[in-house]
Amino acid sequence: MKKSLFMFLMVVLTAFLLISCSRVQDIEEPTKGELKGVKLEKLDGIPAEYGALVGVTANPQYHRWAQLWFQDDNGTIRVVSVGFFDQKMLENVTVIPRRLSDNSRLQKNRHLKIEIG
Fold first, then answer.
1. What's the pLDDT score for residue 49?
2. What's the whole-model pTM score?
3. Does pLDDT of 19 surpass 80?
4. 20 phi, psi to nearest 5 deg
5. Distance between CA atoms of 78 and 67, rounded to whole angstroms?
6. 81 and 39 in contact (C-beta within 8 Å)?
7. Whole-number Å distance between alpha carbons of 49 and 38
8. DSSP characters for 43-73?
9. Alpha helices of the chain — where are they, by DSSP H?
10. DSSP-derived secondary structure letter, 106
11. Residues 24-38: pLDDT tens digits?
C-alpha cells in the first residue's frame, strides 16, 4: 500500500510540474526607450570626444566601482564604470542621447556644465 501511495503521489507531482511549466520568453529587439550601449576600443583612457565630466555616482552594492558621467557638446551623455580599487574600466559604456522638444527652454543652453572640485 505504501508503494502504491508513493507512486500515486509521484504521478500527481509530475503532472503538476508539467502543467505549471511555461515557455521562457524569447529575447526581443530593443524597444523604444531602451538605452544604447557601446564598447570602449581601448581601456587605457576615456576618449576626449565624450566631453566634460559632469557627475560621479556610486552604488552601495558595488562599492568598489563608480560611474563617471560625461556630456559632449551635443548634450549626449555617456556613463563609464571605473573600478578605483582595481584601477580598471569596464568596456561597456551606456549612451544617453539628448533630444530637445520644439518648445524646450533648453534650446539655447544645450547642456549643463557642472564644475567639480
1. 93
2. 0.58
3. no
4. -80, -15
5. 10
6. no
7. 14
8. SSS--GGG-EEEEEEE-GGGTTEEEEEEE-T
9. 2-20
10. G
11. 445 455 566 777 888
